[in-house]
Amino acid sequence: MTDPSQDPRGFRTAVQAFGETQRFGPVTTNLEVPERALAIGAHPDDIEIGCGGTLAKWAARGCTIHHLVLTDGSKGSWDPEQDVASLVATRQDEQREAARRLGGGDVAFLGCPDGELRNTIREQWEVARLVRQIRPDVVFGHDPWRRYRLHPDHRNAGFVVTDALVAARDPHFFPDQDLAPHRPTALLLWEADVANHVEDVAGFEEIKTEALLAHRSQYETTLGIGGEDGSVGKAEESSTRAFADRIREKLAEHGALAGFASGESFHRLEV
To answer: Model's pTM, two decimal places?
Structure first.
């Protein structure tokens, strides 16, 4: 983790948080490439941070990828003069471009206000409906049990997913949807408090990085790209190279849990 004394802004980027994981006991590796996968993130850019390499690998091998973003990303700026409606539109465009760079797939937005996501029946109903419609073999989401997680959207997004999957698999939940129940074969939770599964993503590091770089509005606030003053002008090229190096370092840390040169780690649950 970055030493706060070396960071004048005093914050951890999402990429730094992505790198912090541990394991107890053996891990499983490399699921069979599914026919369909659904990745569910709290904000635009969370999916790419958490599982972008795995999605790129699976997309290249024929998997159809679906993306669901639960909030509108409207608080993703430190500029008090930022036009919120413009920011929301920008972040949606960036998310679509990031998905394209990972290998395609549709992108859906639930539209909850950024910072105000709650795990209620409404959110569970919407996510369960999408799971029943898409019928993914594998679902990705935030680990809601990660200790000391500060951002409420990340915690609540994780529980929305776990609770919605319980509902989606059982026929007596949400019968008004008039959709057949569906049980994915696995749930992979990124930023895992305890990792027990690793996907080898060697060869897909650049695609993951390029997908993250699609989120240009988040260079300062989330990705830690820019000069000392947070600008992304003259210093952008070298700063972007440093960002790519950090991504590779974190992927190496995750891969080492299973003896891979590069990987993404998760907590794997059977649904």
So the answer is: 0.90
CATH of domain 30-269: 3.40.50.10320
**Dihedral over Cα of 24, 30, 33, 39: its sign:** positive
DSSP conformation letters of 192-236:
-SS--EEEE-TT-HHHHHHHHHT-GGGIIIII--S-TTS--STTH
Which secondary-structure segment (H or E) carries 265?
Answer: strand 263-269
* For the chain, percent of residues with pLDDT exceeding 90: 84
Q: Please say whether the beta carbons of 124 and 163 come within 8 A.
A: yes
| Token pair recorded at residue 106 | 């549709």
d(CA 14, CA 50): 9
Contact 106, 59 (CB under 8 A): no
Place of tokens 């950090």: 246
